[in-house]
Amino acid sequence: MQWIELSLDTTNEAVDWVCTLVAETINIDDVQITEYAELNQAQWTFTIRLYLAYDVHSRARVEKIINLLSPLHRTGLATAIQTTVVDQKPTNADILNPPVHRIGKRFVVLTPDALYQSQAADEITLRLKTTLSFGSGLHPATIVSLQMLERYVLPTMNVLDLGSGSGILSVAIAKLGANVLALDNDSIAVDATQDAVYLNGVEQQVTVTKGSLGCGSDLGHWMGGDTIDNVPKIEARNKFDLIVANILARMHIALANDFQRALRQTDAHPGLLITAGFTTDNEDNVAKALTEVGFELVGCERLNEWVALTHRLKV
Predict the structure, then answer these.
(1) 46-53 and 82-86: which strand pairing?
(2) From edge to edge, which strands make up the β-sheet containing 124-127?
(3) Contact criterion met (CB below 8 Å) for 121 and 155
(4) Which residues form a coiled coil (predicted)?
(5) Sign of CA dihedral 205, 211, 213, 214
(6) How far is Cα 17 from Cα 140, in angstroms, rounded to an integer?
(7) Most buried pick, 4, 150, 245, 250, via CB within 10 A?
């Protein structure tokens, strides 16, 4: 059987965007992501190859994918797509030495079958399949979110992961000892989170649910896609010790009141909110919206232009 191979080089930032944008067009088994062994002279760090069966429908599907991904090329996050016809697509066995990504002081992100021996007693491994949901551990927004979680999560916490995507943050929170409600309004993300939970053996600590917090069900897809119908709404009040949300800035601003209502303050925990998924261009707008409803800033992490903020409820 012949295949059409679409390939493009990307930055770290673009990997999750590519997967999210093509989620409705291609199967996960037809996506291959490989990392450059060394940084080349350009800014590219990954090559993504997408495979489509070569048939009467392939031309229309190729055009659709090119249109979906062209904004990444225009904004300098990826190269133009190259297409070629191949007799077979590579298998997982063809990809040697899967990458090991270290994040913060303790997290190590691995593929499911990567052979790895921990380097320290307190190291935390996060094993993830390639998914078509946001949160591979390669995007700067995910990295700064993990750095914040490492700093603030305590074992006794009840945590909400809003917009759970691939499930990487939920797994990290559980492995830090807390209990998690993983919430997403996208079916692909819900399935990906559930897979990650089982793969990492944290199903006793993580509950995965399709839904949204408060008015979030009226705001469409977390990643800016079309409106999603029939998404259950969770009206949480004084329930969570910490909320982490790696979603778009406009979502944080719209959900500010819901964040405030969903958090609780106790003697052990002050009620913490970690917001990520936006750049410095939107930092002031997010911070202003949260301050207006009763939060105060207590922490910040930056990677390139991407930001994660930690706020707590004012006493």
Answers:
(1) unpaired
(2) 101-103, 107-110, 124-127
(3) no
(4) none
(5) negative
(6) 12
(7) 245
Answer for the pair 300, 288: CB distance below 8 angstroms, yes or no: no
Let me know if domain 3-94 sits in CATH 3.30.565.10.
Answer: no
Residue 254 and residue 260 in contact, taking contact as beta carbons nearer than 8 Å: no
- Tell me the average confidence (pLDDT) per consecutive run of 10 residues in the chain, 315 residues long: 87 78 78 63 75 86 89 85 85 56 89 81 87 65 94 95 93 97 90 94 96 75 54 85 93 94 90 94 95 96 92 90
Continuous segment of H or E residues that includes residue 180 = strand 179-184
Helix (H) / strand (E) containing 301: strand 295-303
**Tokens standing for residue 95:** 């990809």
Domain 132-313 CATH (choose: 3.30.40.10, 3.40.50.150, 3.40.50.1820, 3.40.1790.10): 3.40.50.150
Instruction: Name the nearest CA neighbour of 244 among 156, 315, 314, 141.
Output: 141
Helix (H, G, I), strand (E, B) or coil at 39: coil
Q: What is the pLDDT of residue 56?
A: 84
Do domains 3-94 and 132-313 share one topology? The answer is no
- Cα 269 from Cα 274, distance rounded (Å): 14
Predicted local distance difference test score (pLDDT) of residue 35? 67
CA distances for 176 relative to 107, 125, 166, 223, 246, angstroms:
10, 11, 18, 26, 18
Q: Which two three-digit tokens encode residue 304? A: 């390139």
Cα 305 from Cα 75, distance rounded (Å): 14
Q: Which of 265, 256, 272, 249 is nearest to 214 (CA)?
A: 256
Residue 177 CA to residue 209 CA, distance in Å, equals: 20
- Domain positions in the chain are 3-94, 132-313
